[in-house]
Design goal:
The protein is built from 7 helices and 5 strands. With 196 residues, it is α+β, with helices and mostly antiparallel strands.
């Protein structure tokens, strides 16, 4: 009798966990698809030009669900825990500005047809694999995501097997090791001011 009750409890728990996971997979897919539709609607036809207001809106949609703090931690490594709260705040702000500005440099990727290959959810993290196809060229695009503050946020993007966070890490660590954190910040402030 006990084994039957135990089996029923395990089955109910397993079904509950599966239903919760399925709901989160659907939530993530809906979030990314909605973002994709909004971006495509603003992009218009190939060769379109954009007003400053349209550029700002594109930046907002493209980058609105990116967790710059998580990317900053990867990019700075141990330096992140060594700097002050004020320095962290400034770094994340400047770093975010650079990423937002760069997002407009390669708008064609957002015109691609996106196929969702898999969405794996484990607790409050998820990994999404997609394939973007534009003009018969397929590019794998993956997202690492985390559930924070009541919403799913992108913590890294891997485009054609190149991690955004790891790319910044390599570049930033080289500068920090040779010239120090302040030298890196000086360079990033200039870059953000130029809008590149």
């Amino acid at each position: 009798m006990f084994s039957i009750i135990f089996a029923i409890i395990i089955t109910l728990f397993t079904n509950s966990v599966q239903n919760s996971s399925d709901a989160r997979v659907k939530e993530i897919k809906n979030l990314l698809e909605k973002r994709d539709v909004e971006i495509k609607a603003l992009l218009g036809a190939e060769g379109s030009t954009y007003t400053d207001a349209q550029k700002d809106k594109l930046k907002e949609i493209i980058n609105g669900i990116i967790d710059y703090d998580a990317m900053a931690q990867v990019a700075l490594q141990e330096t992140y825990s060594e700097i002050t709260v004020e320095q962290k705040t400034e770094f994340v702000d400047v770093f975010g500005t650079i990423i937002r500005d760069q997002s407009l440099a390669k708008l064609d990727i957002y015109r691609a047809k996106v196929t969702y290959e898999s969405i794996e959810v484990e607790g409050n993290t998820a990994y999404v694999k997609t394939m973007a196809e534009l003009k018969d060229v397929k590019t794998p695009v993956s997202y690492s995501m985390a559930y924070k503050g009541g919403q799913w946020m992108i913590t890294d993007m891997v485009i054609d097997n190149v991690s955004t966070a790891d790319s910044y890490k390599t570049s930033f660590q080289r500068v920090i090791k040779k010239k120090g954190y302040e030298s890196l910040m000086k360079s990033l402030r200039k870059r953000a001011a130029r809008g590149e």
